[in-house]
Amino acid sequence: MKFWGVRGSIPSPGPETARYGGNTPCVEIRIGEELALFDLGTGARGLGDAVARPVEGHIFISHYHYDHLQGLPFFAPIFDSRSRFIVRGPTRDGRTVKDVISSQMQQPFFPVTAEMVFRAQLDYQPFAAGDIARIGEGVVTAIETNHPGGNLAYRIENRGKSIVYATDTEHGTQRDSQLLDFARDADLFIYDAMYTEDEYLGRAGSSKIGWGHSTFETAVKVADEARVGTLVLFHHDPTRNDDAMDELVRKVKKLRKETVAAKEGLVIKL
Questions:
Q1: What is the mean pLDDT, run by run of 10 residues, along the chain of 270 residues?
Q2: pTM (two decimals)
Q3: What is the CATH topology of the domain spanning 2-261?
């Protein structure tokens, strides 16, 4: 797998975030010979420019907030008629993944529509908690997490190895136990660790309770209880610069050695 975008909420480019990266979520996972992309934040632009075309692959959208779709209109392979994608995502308020993607590229918010410019062969498939997608020898499943408007966490399994992609989730509800079971014994656990506990509770700045994100302390707790292999901190706060990220990682490693923070360009092989 490779990380192309790791930042949350809004892109944060610049010299102070260059080492970890300022692009919003996009993760590439190779399932055998198959290509699967998880979210299309601004990191998708770099991925699209780097991958050889034509492209055949699978796109899984966790939810439809801007930071997870901002890269779609600039994802080069989607303008190539030779490319083919199966695009999966949740249905929200009666609107399917196709409906949402089409509606977010409309005047006056965007100069052209998806129907006008997308040339790739696109198969839109609604995906919900409990559904199963078979990709080569691999299997992808999903559950709902606690996030305003809803969010899907995905589990990818292939040849005895497993990855859980759990971006945009807030702890403190009955869904905590569901996520714990979902992540059980995963080799790699990618988790929304946007805040520290002090930031989340309002002891440092305004309270973040109800914003739909979690903390590194909770990330460690869930990872330990679920007996996962490596914890990957993800969806970094856009205001947290590289030096602050280094300090956060040092704190986390004192609690759990088997932890890394996602960085743009980071490749992990299982």
A1: 97 97 98 95 97 95 97 96 97 96 90 93 97 96 98 97 98 96 98 97 96 97 98 98 98 97 97
A2: 0.96
A3: Metallo-beta-lactamase; Chain A (3.60.15)
The residues, any chain, with a CB within 8 Å of residue 5's CB and separated by 6 or more, are: 21, 23, 24, 25, 26, 27, 39, 41, 42, 43, 44, 46, 71, 264
**For residue 210, what are its two tokens?**
């109800």
